[in-house]
Amino acid sequence: HPESILTEHGHAMLANFLKGTR
């Protein structure tokens, strides 16, 4: 399902963003 991919991509981006912020 595309939603699953989108969710996974979103989570990855969120994690990367948080990592960058730290």
What sort of overall outline do the alpha carbons produce when their principal axes are compared? rod-shaped
Largest sheet: none
The strand count comes to: 0
Q: Helix and strand string, N-terminal first?
A: H
Short descriptors:
single chain, 1 helix, 22 residues, mainly alpha, rod-shaped
Walk me through the structure:
The chain has 22 residues and is mostly helical. It is 91% helix and 0% strand. It is built from 1 helix and no strands. The termini are far apart.
SSE layout:
Elements (H helix, E strand, L loop, with lengths): L1 H20 L1
In short:
With 22 residues, this protein is mainly α.
